[in-house]
Amino acid sequence: MFENFWFNVEYGINHVLDPKAYDHVLFLMILAVPYVFKDWKRVLLLVSMFTLGHTLSLVLAAYGVVNVNGKLVEFLIPVTILIAAIYNVFTAGKKDRGQKVGLLFFATLFFGIIHGLGFARAFKMFAGQSENILEILIEFALGIEIAQVVIVFIVLFLGFLFQTLFRFSRRDWVMVLSAIVIGLVIPMVMASNLLSVS
Description:
Blueprint: H1 2-17, H2 23-32, H3 40-62, H4 70-91, H5 102-127, H6 133-164, H7 170-191
């Protein structure tokens, strides 16, 4: 029983930390970079919204409710990261950003749905014909949440180091990391080959 539980949780952790599919990590970096440790409740809520969206799309796909063109999703995933990174660039250093979180929560939920759809086919193969798909989904989602919290902690810790030891302003830290992510994600958008969608 515990072995199955941990196997599914570990699968969720590995899904997020897979070096071959680092889009998940890039999105989490963009999500966390504007914040500091004292904002941990808001960051945790944002991360949980992403997990919720991710899990929701897997539920819909696992039960055959949705069936999305893989190439379209492959294009939309880096686009969502690019949009979030550009948003960071334009809002870096603005003090009212932290107050208007409603739209950010819904956007994060939507991005989670898109990212989940990108993994739907692989998850269906993983779950197979199991009668406990919902149980597997919950355990998988727990693994995703654990890995995301670790990544977010690392981003917040790096932000703390750069802003205290290296005297980066918060605005500069957000701009630098967002620019790096933009540079990494543009080739992903270009390589997504949306033109071949039929």
